[in-house]
Every structure is written in C-alpha cells, then in structure tokens.
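Let's inspect one such protein example.
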Amino acid sequence: MTAWFQSWMGHGFGWFTATLILILLIALPLMLTVAMIIYADRKIWAAMALRRGPNVVGPFGLLQSFADGLKVFLKETIIPTAANRGLFLIAPIITFTVALLAWAVIPFGEGMVLANINVGLLYLLAISSLGVYGIIIAGWASNSKYPFYSALRAAAQMVSYEVSIGFVLIPVIMWAGTFNLSGIIAAQQGHILGVVNGFGFNPLLFPLAVIFLISSMAETARAPFDLTEAESELVAGFQTEYSSMAFALFWLGEYGNVILMCGMNALLFWGGWLPPLDVDWLPWFDIPGIIWFFGKILLFFFIFSWVKATVPRYRYDQLMRLGWKIFLPISLIWVFLVSGYLMLQRDGMLPW
C-alpha cells in the first residue's frame, strides 16, 4: 500500500499518508475491541456469580459500553483545587497513549505488522515500562493520600514483576535467536516433533509460560493483583479524584494493556497467528492467521476474567513475596537450564 501511495503522491507524503491510514486501521478497531472487551468482561463476571450482567442497552446489552462512554463524555471534568493541574490532566493521556503505541510492532499475521523492527520485543518492554508513569503522575498530582499510596504501590508492583518478565523472556529470545516478534513466531512453527506450533508446548519452556501469564496479570494490575486500585483500602486508588473523560482514558488504557498482554502471551509462547498443529490436511489449516491470533487473545482474556471473578485479592506482602522470592529465582534458574540445554544441543552432546 505504501508503494502505491508513493507512486502518485511522492515518496515522503505518500509514506506519511499510508502510515497514517495503517495506524488508523489498528487504533480504531482497537478502540472498538476495548469497548466490547469491557462488555465481555462484565458478562463473564456476572455468569460466574450467577448474575445477568449488562442486558438492557441494545440487544443482549451489547451497547452498554458505548452508553457508559457517552455518559462519561457528558460529565464535567473536575480538578481538585490543590492538585497539580498540568500533571493531573496529562497522566491519563500518557496511560492511554502508551497503550496504543505498543501495538505498532504487534504482528497480526504473516507480514501484517505496522513496524517490523528487529528489536520489537525490546520496544514492547520499553513501552510497557512507560505505562507506570501515568499511574505515578496521577497519584502524585492528585494531592490526596489515597492516590499517593496507590502510586507508590504501582511503582513497586510493576518494577517487581518487570524483573521476572525480563528473565522469562531471555530463554525465549535464546531459543528463537531474534528479538523480532515475527521471527519469534516463525521459530515456533513445528517446534515439537515438527508438528506442534508453540514454545508453550515445550516442557522446558512451559513453566516460563505460566510465570509470564501470572506476571502479565500483575503488570496490568488485574485481580488478584489489583492493589493499585483496591477499593476496600484506597477508595479507587490513583483514579479516586478523576471524573469524566480523564477517568475513561484510564479505563481505555487499562484494557488496552490487558489485550496487549494477552497478545504477548499468544505471540511469545503459543504460536501467535499459527494454528496449534502444523498439519496441512487438517480442516483448520486454511483459517487466516489473524483469526488464530485473535482467538488466542480471547482465550487468554477469558483466563484473565476468570481469575478476576474467582481469586481473592492478594495482600501486598504476598504480592511482593511472589514476585521477588518465587518468580525471580525460578526465572533465573530457568535461564541457566535453557542456555545449558541449547549449548549442549549446539555441540551435539544431546541425542534430541
């Protein structure tokens, strides 16, 4: 598409137009997906609590998220008199913008990626690390004790679990031999016996897939790790003083990050756009890769919602203990195990 625009609009302006269209093709469906994901989240919680959930606005309640969006849009944006006005307003914008930026390197299918950079995984780590700044700034700028406590919790929580996530990704990078996300997915094709696609099916990497799944819940502050907005302790955490569209931007950013983490689970361990089995005579072999990718995202999102509906919230000391005393040592040990296995395999000292 870029070449077509450049052919009649010139090299620079054609590239800009094509890139802008591609960004909109990712961002606009993502916003619609976030709205429907919020609806699905509420429906799953309701079903597990034997309730109905949203069922009034639109058929089956499908328009409930849009009604909620209209409601917050029409409300007044209230800024506390003692708050730092500039930082107070920019915090939700940071959270929302960072959630969108990460999707630039996510491959939806073979060749279906906005920026196919060689350091795509490092880019994702950097972007996910920036997300915490929106929460910290919001908590500090509100000039209120409960948002400030939430900001401190968020900083410690996200830093703690980013460490374990970083060590979990090292074996994946070593096995794939690249930081490029499309290359990592290609390395998973026929990974087990030349038939099964996905690092998660490898017994040596499966524990890392489990750690990454749990750590991604903590990284996005989802239950049972939602200590940044623990309503029984901190009112609404860093969102306590927010209203109207500023509050909505936090919600959009939060669910955008949740979908991103579901996508990263699918990309890094479960084959991304690849089907589970790489067998051409199976009826699902011709299903487009983007359908497989979105199906895996929805599966992981169901797991996220399932956990939120059934698992009680951790205490803060339990949260820190899990990150520093359990996940960090295990991920470090697994780095040595996987690197040792790959070295022995390279030197021909293993029969498989």
